[in-house]
Specification:
Length: about 270
């Protein structure tokens, strides 16, 4: 009980401190999975904020003025009054404590429940994120960064991704709860990990199905998280769905061009 009381007092002191400052600014690019998690969290919990887009495709995160916000030059980052913070998990923790009205299930005051959530978040970056983000990069997004597609690297990170999805199912989606750790309501870990997996929407549909279909519990958990955060989840992910449509058209166009070139070569050789 003492630990719980102390923790609540710490959250309260943060809340009182931020009340003396005004204006939360969220620096984000909605194509970034952790950026989407922050924006969805703010919208679901009715936290007033100003969204400032940092366009990664235009390398705006490398501009000198953004370095003043985040010296690591990554999104998301926030400024709350005079307080600056980067790293999405740290931001989610801060928002859950600093703003009144955020439901306890997002980041429980119970220290044992909170520690369990922390264990998932610590695991996330070196496992699920490494697999999912790496797979999307090497199969789809590399050309946007001036890099070649790398099937060999994609195959390696797909192994990490598949193991990560299996572990989510076997370790954290056990029991009757709809969300991680057997909970009946989502936490910041659910939101962070589901936004990560949603990035896979950018890859070819057959590859996406091959990766996700074996994991029925993961698929249901994703849907449950969408429902728990509607309508904001779909709205914030709209940019991802548009990017997916654009990539599908490019793949279709490329396939047609290859077919046309093949037919032209065949016709040419038949006339020789």
């Amino acid at each position: 009980m003492l630990g719980k009381k102390k923790n609540q007092e710490q959250c309260s002191s943060i809340s009182l401190e931020r009340e003396r400052e005004m204006g939360l600014k969220v620096y984000a690019d909605r194509m970034s999975q952790p950026s989407r998690a922050i924006i969805i969290f703010c919208k679901v919990n009715e936290i007033d904020f100003e969204e400032i887009r940092v366009d990664l495709a235009k390398r705006q995160h490398l501009h000198p003025e953004f370095k003043e916000v985040n010296p690591m030059r990554q999104v998301p980052a926030i400024i709350d009054g005079r307080f600056k913070l980067f790293e999405s998990h740290a931001i989610l923790r801060y928002l859950a404590c600093a703003f009144p009205g955020v439901a306890d299930h997002w980041y429980p005051s119970d220290l044992s429940k909170r520690a369990k959530i922390e264990s998932v978040l610590d695991w996330h970056h070196s496992n699920l994120r490494r697999g999912a983000a790496g797979y999307v990069l090497h199969t789809t997004l590399a050309p946007a960064f001036g890099l070649p597609l790398n099937p060999q690297a994609a195959a390696e990170v797909e192994k990490i991704l598949s193991v990560s999805l299996e572990r989510i199912e076997s370790i954290w989606l056990k029991g009757n709860g709809r969300f991680l750790l057997g909970s009946s309501q989502p936490s910041i870990a659910d939101l962070s990990l589901v936004c990560e997996i949603m990035q896979l929407k950018l890859v070819d549909e057959k590859d996406l199905n091959r990766i996700l279909i074996p994991h029925k519990k993961v698929q249901q958990w994703i849907e449950d998280t969408k429902q728990a955060t509607r309508p904001h989840f779909e709205e914030v992910h709209a940019i991802l769905f548009k990017a997916k449509e654009k990539l599908q058209k490019q793949r279709f166009s490329g396939a047609n061009n290859q077919t046309q070139q093949s037919h032209t070569k065949s016709a040419f050789h038949s006339k020789m």
